[in-house]
């Protein structure tokens, strides 16, 4: 089971490499071919796995929009209007961050450090992580989706991440009206799947160096930003720090 889960991770990495517009592949076809003898002998394979990768979690991770149908009966107070978008990039699993793009003269790259998120029940969230995506006004992905690793720690009313996200497009190439979304997800043991708890987003005019705090909204994630409802009246925010890189 563990070997199959590691093979799944390698397939994710190869998929991400094929989606990338950069010339250097993170996970090459030659690498993928090394998995063939493992697959052929999967029931007897007992050597060390050729790549240092984490297994894809065996938990069910639902597509955007899918989980809401399962949750309304229990979480009515958290419900909201909105819909997920058809993903034009493959789904990724927790802890699949991408490296910074190569710099180009006159172009700006953005690194966002996700510091922490404030939640009244922070300590009760199991295996929390954040999915980061860049969407246009119609909710269509403009870059591959990235997931942070599971949070570093939970403390009082905060879940701490302290992780850098490299936005996979030069700022000048993002379409007008684009936004960067942050979906906070956690595992629900009763239902045995990972669920979105709330989301936040940052619009293009908010891209500037330094610290920023952004408000949290009720799920389901409204990528079109049409019917937004704050998660709570309490002052709870996602704390970020932005760094701009320009040649």
Automatic annotation (TrEMBL):
<dbReference type="Pfam" id="PF08910">
    <property type="entry name" value="Aida_N"/>
</dbReference>
<protein>
    <submittedName>
        <fullName>AIDA protein</fullName>
    </submittedName>
</protein>
<comment type="similarity">
    <text>Belongs to the AIDA family.</text>
</comment>
<feature type="domain" description="C2 Aida-type">
    <location>
        <begin position="98"/>
        <end position="245"/>
    </location>
</feature>
<feature type="compositionally biased region" description="Acidic residues">
    <location>
        <begin position="69"/>
        <end position="79"/>
    </location>
</feature>
<dbReference type="InterPro" id="IPR035892">
    <property type="entry name" value="C2_domain_sf"/>
</dbReference>
<dbReference type="InterPro" id="IPR036818">
    <property type="entry name" value="AIDA_N_sf"/>
</dbReference>
<feature type="region of interest" description="Disordered">
    <location>
        <begin position="69"/>
        <end position="94"/>
    </location>
</feature>
<dbReference type="InterPro" id="IPR023421">
    <property type="entry name" value="AIDA_N"/>
</dbReference>
<dbReference type="GO" id="GO:0016020">
    <property type="term" value="C:membrane"/>
</dbReference>
<dbReference type="InterPro" id="IPR025939">
    <property type="entry name" value="Aida_C"/>
</dbReference>
<keyword id="KW-0217">Developmental protein</keyword>
<dbReference type="Pfam" id="PF14186">
    <property type="entry name" value="Aida_C2"/>
</dbReference>
<comment type="function">
    <text>Acts as a ventralizing factor during embryogenesis. Inhibits axin-mediated JNK activation by binding axin and disrupting axin homodimerization. This in turn antagonizes a Wnt/beta-catenin-independent dorsalization pathway activated by AXIN/JNK-signaling.</text>
</comment>
<dbReference type="GO" id="GO:0048264">
    <property type="term" value="P:determination of ventral identity"/>
</dbReference>
<dbReference type="GO" id="GO:0035091">
    <property type="term" value="F:phosphatidylinositol binding"/>
</dbReference>
């Amino acid at each position: 089971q563990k070997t199959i889960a590691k093979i799944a991770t390698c397939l994710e990495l190869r998929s991400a490499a094929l989606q990338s517009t950069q010339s250097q592949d993170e996970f090459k076809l030659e690498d993928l071919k090394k998995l063939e003898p493992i697959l052929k002998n999967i029931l007897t394979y007992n050597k060390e796995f050729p790549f240092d990768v984490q297994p894809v979690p065996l938990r069910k991770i639902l597509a955007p929009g899918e989980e809401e149908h399962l949750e309304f009966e229990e979480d009515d107070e958290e419900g909201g209007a909105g819909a997920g978008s058809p993903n034009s990039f493959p789904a990724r699993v927790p802890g699949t961050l991408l490296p910074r793009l190569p710099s180009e003269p006159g172009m700006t790259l953005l690194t966002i450090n996700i510091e922490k998120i404030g939640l009244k029940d922070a300590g009760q969230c199991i295996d929390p992580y954040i999915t980061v995506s860049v969407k246009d006004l119609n909710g269509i992905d403009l870059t591959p989706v990235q997931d942070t690793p599971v949070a570093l720690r939970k403390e009082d009313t905060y879940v701490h991440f302290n992780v850098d996200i490299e936005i996979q497009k030069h700022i000048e190439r993002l379409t007008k009206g684009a936004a960067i979304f942050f979906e906070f997800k956690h595992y629900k043991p009763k239902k045995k799947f990972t669920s979105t708890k709330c989301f936040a987003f940052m619009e293009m005019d908010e891209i500037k160096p330094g610290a920023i705090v952004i408000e949290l909204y009720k799920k389901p994630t409204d990528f079109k930003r049409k019917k937004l409802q704050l998660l709570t009246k309490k002052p709870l925010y996602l704390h970020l720090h932005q760094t701009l890189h320009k040649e």
